[in-house]
Amino acid sequence: MLALTSNPEAPQFQHARTEMGGTVAGTVLDELRKLNADAETMGSFGAVVGATISDTSEDLDVNGPLLVPGIGAQGGEIEPVLRDGPATATPAAGGTGRGLLVNVSRGISDAALGEPRPGQPTDAGERLAAAAVDWASRLPVLT
Known about the structure:
- The protein is α/β, with parallel strands linked by helices.
- It has one domain (2-104): TIM Barrel (Alpha-Beta Barrel), CATH 3.20.20.70.
- The chain has five helices and four strands.
- The protein has helices at residues 10-14, 24-35, 78-84, 105-109, 124-138; strands at 2-4, 47-49, 66-69, 100-103.
- A four-stranded parallel beta sheet has the order 1-2-3-4.
- Helix 3 links the parallel strand 3 and strand 4 (100-103).
- The chain is elongated, with a radius of gyration of 17 Å.
């Protein structure tokens, strides 16, 4: 479920108050928590939460995976996502990055464009593979 994005128009909808007093994004996250409540480790229902959103007071621990787009080319940084994201909360307390699906597709695909930088392979496919290996080494996998 789409919960929080950094699109310029997003706050108008995501942070709008519902009749119950919460936000639209908070209501989505609450429903995901309910759907995943009986899961032993991590539920099957997840949310999309952009890496470049401003600070939020929403509880992102939905006991399910979070797709986190926006790292790299869009300006999101790895460290805050891993440090402040739900990876530090239950059920993810067992390991940094647990439950996060971090998307860096443009950060990888852009490596094949243009002229190689000094020390990079000249072959675009090799640059692409090297970028994928580099990002994989910096990001924990979903466990």
